[in-house]
Amino acid sequence: MATREEITSGLAEILEEVAGVNPEDVAEEKSFTDDLDVDSLSMVEVVVAAEEKFGVKIPDNEVQNLKTVGDAVTYIEANH
Amino acid sequence: MSNVDVVVTGLGATTPLGGDVASTWDAMLAGRSGVGPLTQEWAGQLPVRIAAQLAVEPSEVLERVRLRRMDRAEAMAVIAAKQAWADAGLADSGLDPDRLAVSYGTGIGGAITLLEQDDILEQSGPRRVSPHTVPMLMPNGPAAYIGLELGARAGVRAMASACATGAEAVALGLDLLRAGRADVVVAGSTEAVVHPLPIAGFASMRAMSTRNDDPEKASRPWDKNRDGFVLGEGAGALILERADHAAARGARVYARLAGAGITSDGFDIVQPDPECRGGIRAMRMAIQDAGLTGADIHHVNAHATSTPVGDMGEIKGIKAAIGTHPILTSTKSMSGHLLGAAGALESIATILALRDGIIPPTINLDEPDERLDLDVAAHKARPAEIQAAMNNSFGFGGHNVALVFARV
């Protein structure tokens, strides 16, 4: 089981690869759209990459609830 | 005829001969070939294993994350357009975005994206297909990305007329400026289909050279031993501008875009008319549109792709429409055939020949076809006083476009 820190740093790697986000900017309180400038198409890529990396399923109707990095970490922690 | 003069104030390109216009032009004047072997693993099974690939990869120019969202053809288009924009000095000119249009095409479009994403679909399922797939493969993508990059709001027009695309995009730019729909137009085209499927398709048509053991000799327009075209990739962009607009901002002017002619053959979907009737009409139309006569055209950058039929048909056409005096060249002997982007790159070569008074060579013309009875700048660049010059582009579908450029 990955810790919250490990999940956050895994998401940071994905965000850097997909959207060019500086890993140092990635923290649980950051909003994907407002703080990290991840647009809707890139968010799709982030979700698919996170599913693969953490072995979870993130249904589309769940994605809209993942506003912040912390939301995603919580979801992944609970479901992987 | 319109009394609005249109001039060329900026050029940009990324080609098999160089990453920009200056290096591409230097390579042309030196008679260098951009054709080389295809070393990719997939090339092994193909009958054609040569191509003219970019001299400078887009990844050396554009940022990685932007490139992930662009087809290769789109990335090359943006690179060429940004160069042309900077070259024209438009960056801080205060140009009203509502008066800036784009007329930019591609012969085939985002084929590499389509095929790569299809591989992903087959291997990993639909959920793994990139959400950027559609904007990457749509044929208006290159024009739209240029529009985004430069903030154009007077319309983004996307041409598709196979190997005449680049020239037709320039011709549409002329129309837009004459009609008063814009003050500045970014015109040109891009092509990036060095991929096994398009190559296999062209090879199945027996349209491509199979001189795999001697790539630099493979593209040999008008030579007796020509055996087909060599695929090239690249993009070119021209900044077209109303002459009074260019003068008001003190812009440097390369040449005047004096006239254009567009016709269609109504003959065959892929075979060129051996009598070049549609080509003749396009050339005559362009000369008349420029207010010139055949005698005024001193140089032709020909379409001549190195195929057995097409090369000689065009010779007949040039003699009928212009005469026996112009000095010809086919820069495809060096760049390969950039398909949709050919007309853009060759317009640039025509403009620079006018400006510098030198015609780039047709390399590999070792044993000219007996039917070639016009003067070609074979092997070496040829100095020549040129007042007006033509660029021809013909495309699958029976598209014929002739452009006339003149000294200012």
Question: If you had to describe this structure to a student in words, what would you say it looks like?
Answer:
The complex is a heterodimer of chains A (80) and B (408). By secondary structure, chain A is mainly α. Chain A is 57% helix and 0% strand. Chain A is built from 4 helices and no strands. Chain A has helices at residues 4-19, 40-54, 60-63, 69-79. Chain A is globular. Chain A starts with a helix and ends with a helix. Chain B has one domain: Peroxisomal Thiolase, Chain A, domain 1. With 408 residues, chain B is α/β, with parallel strands linked by helices. Chain B starts with 5 loop residues before the first strand and ends with a strand. Chains A and B meet through helix 2 of A and helix 2 of B. Chain A: Residues 5-80 form the Carrier domain. Chain A: It is found in: Cytoplasm.
Give the arrangement of secondary structure elements.
The complex is a heterodimer of chains A (80) and B (408).
Chain A: H1 4-19, H2 40-54, H3 60-63, H4 69-79
Chain B: E1 6-14, H1 21-29, E2 36-37, E3 50-51, H2 64-68, H3 72-87, E4 100-106, H4 111-124, H5 133-137, H6 141-150, E5 156-157, H7 165-178, E6 184-191, H8 196-204, E7 234-242, H9 243-248, E8 255-264, H10 277-289, E9 299-301, H11 308-321, E10 327-329, H12 332-335, H13 342-356, E11 358-359, E12 382-383, E13 388-395, E14 399-406
Parallel strand pairs in B: 4-5, 4-6, 9-10, 9-13
Antiparallel strand pairs in B: 1-7, 1-8, 2-3, 6-7, 8-14, 11-12, 13-14
InterPro entries (chain A): ACP (IPR003231), ACP-like_sf (IPR036736), PP-bd_ACP (IPR009081)
Pathway (chain A): Lipid metabolism; fatty acid biosynthesis
Domain Carrier (chain A): 5-80
